[in-house]
Amino acid sequence: MKKEEVKKVLSEIDTDNDGKVSAKQLHDYINGGKCHFNKAIIEKFISDHSKDGNDHLNLDELAEVLSG
Questions:
Q1: Which domain of life is it from (predicted)?
Q2: Are 21 and 59 in contact (CB under 8 A)?
Q3: Global pTM?
Q4: CA–CA distance from 61 to each of 11, 44, 67 (Å)?
């Protein structure tokens, strides 16, 4: 899937439309049954980019990782 396609899918969890989501939102997304991406990759992204589990994460960076 291309990066732009991944970003479009991920935009559904970006409730503020600011290009960022909380680690909690991502956890809810991957555990909610709607996620079709590799959960292990998303979990690694969260652990690599979130110091305390509450940081807001850049969806553009996540889309890059998931599309690669």
A1: Eukaryota
A2: yes
A3: 0.86
A4: 13, 13, 10
